[in-house]
Design brief:
InterPro entries: RmlC_Cupin_sf. By secondary structure, this protein is an alpha+beta fold. Helices cover 33% and strands 27% of the residues. The longest helix has 17 residues, at 156-172.
């Protein structure tokens, strides 16, 4: 059995892990790439919206109660606190470098942006649909994925209008929703506060940590 199939089945039976997403001090969002396997490539959830692109490999993915198969070009928008995970078909010891490109944006960023610029209310339908997971479809998806990848070569200021433009075009793209409505998790506020404090202390710690 390939590792991806085993991992996906195991994840379906497990409780999703809460992921702490923390942008750099000068950023209002997180853009990154990662390999598979990787510590962050697991059955997880978080309060940020996540735009997720697969660039290499095949396997199984889960969004809420949806279970499907992915290949390069798979572009999905996940709403806040919706459990999700992508598991590649790899043999033990094998890895897929730079398999994922991920953009994570806090809900308050969108709320503030649409309050400041009512014209952006056209994003409301897409953001609402993301609570069920949204997979983008059609011939334009490859170009939209390339624009998401291109954010990695831009400076911080240039990324802001690029993200807004990308989201506006995604709202016009064909898509389908993936999972049942209402499948979101809410971490305990007190526990989340403890986790946030720990992460903040680690980030602020100047000396090398050995544990």
């Amino acid at each position: 059995m390939v590792h991806g199939t085993h991992s996906a089945r195991k994840a379906r039976a497990a409780t999703p892990v809460f992921e702490v997403v923390r942008p750099e001090p000068r950023n209002s969002f997180v853009w990154h790439t990662h390999d598979y396997p990787a510590p962050c490539a697991r059955w997880n959830y978080h309060p940020e919206y996540e735009l997720h692109l697969i660039t290499k490999g095949c396997g199984q993915y889960m969004v809420g109660d949806y279970f499907g198969f992915f290949a390069p070009g798979n572009l999905v928008l996940i709403g806040p606190n919706v459990p999700h995970g992508w598991f590649s078909d790899v043999t033990p010891g094998e890895s897929v470098p730079d398999r994922n490109i991920v953009l994570q944006v806090n809900k308050s960023w969108f709320t503030g942006l649409m309050t400041l610029c009512p014209e952006l209310d056209v994003l409301h339908g897409l953001l609402a649909a993301s609570g069920r997971g949204v997979e983008f479809l059609g011939p334009g998806v490859a170009a939209l994925g390339a624009r998401l990848a291109g954010l990695g070569t831009m400076d911080d200021a240039a990324r802001i209008p690029a993200i807004i433009g990308l989201l506006l075009d995604l709202a016009q793209c064909s898509y389908r929703t993936l999972c049942s409505a209402g499948l979101t998790l809410s971490p305990d506020d007190r526990e989340l506060e403890k986790i946030d404090s720990i992460i903040r202390n680690i980030v602020d710690f100047q000396r090398e940590l050995t544990l």
